[in-house]
Amino acid sequence: MSAPGVGALRVISSGLCCSVGYTADAASCALRAGMDHFQESDFVADGSERLRVARLPSATLWGGERLALWVRQAVADCLGGVKAFETADTALCLLTLERERPHGDDRTQFATAQAAQRVLGHTFSADSRVFTAGRAGLGHALLRIRHLIDQGHVRRVLLVGVDSYLNAATINHYLAQERLLTTMNRDGFLPGEAAAAVLLEAAAPDAPGFVIRGVGRDRADGRPDGSTPSRGRALTRAMRAALAAAQLKPDDLDFRLSDQNGESFFAREAANALTRLGVAPPTLTTADCVGEVGAATGPLMLAWLQRLMPREDGPGARGLIHLANDDGERSAIVVSYQPVTA
């Protein structure tokens, strides 16, 4: 069964730090132009081929301290223009990698959360929490965030997604599964790293500005290794739940923003889901510019759309974000934008 949709949330501000820009404004320009900053790394495949990656510039920090550096940059970018920011009524929600991935154990996740809290220099609400839910965890995080706000625990939530695939354990894991893009494997992804932050508050569905109008979640049986095929049914249900929460029909969508990362499994699943909806809106992507950035993907998408949708040459007023995890988690988010009138 699909989870019920979430009440609307307005994106007050957002920030971003990734391989194509250390601020959301800079990265948005690169994403809009289809630019990337892929480069050869010291990671080696098949004995001699140096893997291409989407890397941020730090050769001295690793682990939680490295991730915390990108978190600090993204949060500073997000809060730089926010007047009278109060941490007492703001919860920090950190979205990180799944537990099943290398370095996804509780101890490492806790170290990352501690490092992030330390570099931010703020004491947030006691309702702050960590979601070890990966790329598709955005849906779960948004549902919990609206619940926190509705219960009166906090007025605003700072959602931060952070992830990095650039460590030996992770690279070796995905090389062994033949899932990284190499000259011998064209059905793979380029590993990257990023952090993105969005400041959220409750809003009416027809509120002006950039608004998250509906969220849907579901669980798929299919797995990328082919052990169980996917026919897109769970993603279809998540999309329909998000549209129902937003009180929109599939034909109302102007575009979709896909998390497809170069692996045909996820691209085929999304195509099947959209066929069931009976629509084929124009497609936007981010991984072709920033690489696979895991748990940072969803917040990164929101940060980009907050800048892209108000433009005269933007993709339209209503869009669908969809995200998928290896473990079967599927999320769909309906967003809209309407100008703020004086």
TrEMBL record:
<dbReference type="InterPro" id="IPR016039">
    <property type="entry name" value="Thiolase-like"/>
</dbReference>
<dbReference type="GO" id="GO:0016746">
    <property type="term" value="F:acyltransferase activity"/>
</dbReference>
<protein>
    <submittedName>
        <fullName>3-oxoacyl-ACP synthase</fullName>
    </submittedName>
</protein>
